[in-house]
């Protein structure tokens, strides 16, 4: 697996080296395609996992609702979440649908300016995760733009979540890492 470097190496520079301070950062060729490819993989895995969870866990209620995989450390529990993360604001599902749609549009527009592989992967994960949960909000019960997100992964002392949520959290971690390393979206080093 290829190592993710901070910036794309330009002609005559070493991978991971800092661009010349006088040279403008160069956007990654095909960055939008990379972002979309990562997003499609995340979306496909997320929706396939949710379909499995509904089929395998849909008839479990009460004490049998949780399926232990690693004892108390990890298990499956089917939850239909009408709210945001941690089931906050459950009566305003339509607002989260609008927010997720705006996030998707902004990510696609900003992807043309990406000059860092780290940011490119983060945007792909973020787009895939946002699209995975947006798909639930648009097409699942109780209705269009009011659908409940399917969550099924359970850790102790943590709300039940899904693969889209995991992708969003990984994207957030990569964005924090890029920021701590001083790498801008365009690949330029910020001192």
How would you describe what is shown here?
It is a single chain. This protein has a 3-stranded antiparallel sheet with strand order 1-2-3. Helices cover 45% and strands 8% of the residues. A hairpin with a 6-residue loop joins strand 1 and strand 2. Helix 1 crosses helix 3. It contains 4 helices and 3 strands, in the order αββααβα. The chain has one domain. It is mostly helical and 191 residues long.
How would the blueprint of this fold be written?
Elements lengths: L30 H27 L8 E3 L6 E7 L11 H18 L6 H23 L9 E6 L8 H18 L11
Antiparallel strand pairs: 1-2, 2-3
Output the number of helix runs. 4
Shape: elongated
Low-pLDDT ranges: 7-20
Q: Provide the domain count.
A: 1
What would the average pLDDT be, to the nearest integer? 85
Organism: Spongisporangium articulatum
Protein name: Lipoprotein signal peptidase
Region (Disordered): 1-24
Pathway: Protein modification; lipoprotein biosynthesis (signal peptide cleavage)
List keywords for this structure.
8% strand, three-stranded antiparallel sheet, 191 residues, single chain, mainly alpha, 4 helices, aspartic-type endopeptidase activity
Provide a compact summary of the structure:
It is found in: Cell membrane. With 191 residues, this protein is mostly helical.
